Amino acid sequence: MKHIIKRMAVLLIPVYLWFAFFVIFEPNNYFGLKSSAGSSQPVARVRAYQKEPGRSLILGDSRFAHFDMELIREITGEEWQNLAFGGASLHETLDLAQYILDSGNPVDRMVFEVSFYVLNANYATDRFAALEETLNNPIAYCLNLEYNVNALTGFANWLAHTPDAPETGEWGPEDYFDADGAPIPVHRVLYDYIGLITPRCRNWALNSQLERLPELAEQCRARGIRLTVVLPPMAGLVREKVCVPYGIEAAMTGDVLPRLRAWAAEYGFTLLDYEWGESCITDDDTQFYDGFHLDEVHGLPQWTRELFGDVYAAK
Known about the structure:
- The chain is an alpha/beta fold.
- Helix content is 50%, strand content 7%.
């Protein structure tokens, strides 16, 4: 029997080594052994919330995922926790908000992102149930291929001493030509972004998930949570080349925004519209990295100050 146990222990050495490697280099800090996660994936953000629930929370997609949290603390004098993650659909953000409310953890403020893009019925991913299973099952997390690839990537970046690069650019003359060599009015990353989002926006239709927002607002009001619904700025090029031609501007300004304003009045939440209204973000070429994401040096800090100033100014 002892010989069998020894042989089994030897056979399991590769498993032990793999597990140690995975725990060290997985970027989501799933096991809480690092000071913070090196990832903005949903499993990283929600796992951090499970371990240390914040009382002032940010929910949304990648446009909200890269705030400088130290800057927010400087502006507000309070600690905020960012639960936004790349690719989050309206369905998933609402599910996450409900998960937070169902947890029973105290919440003081919640900043909740919506935009014409996530209000599109053609953008309706629903991964939260799978995420919950992963959060509750460490074995499923360890055996997940995507997270193992993330660990390998983290190891490669560690070997190469490659830090995460912010989305910013000091654009040169070579960045102002399209694929055919013709001059363009804005830098190439922003210019090409129109082509990336057009297929999904061409047949834009209102997402029925929007009807869940009043329920969230009512729950927040009942619990004394100060809810702020935010439409973030988009590049003017997106409005001109996508929103106007495909009827999105007419639908948003003629139907969706009046509905949101009515709900804000009825349920007592704050509505901040930088998507169709005014913002400090006025220069596509300098302040946007692409059509949705603000330049993390030249645009995002300025808008962060405007946004959280407005959040706290609202009564």
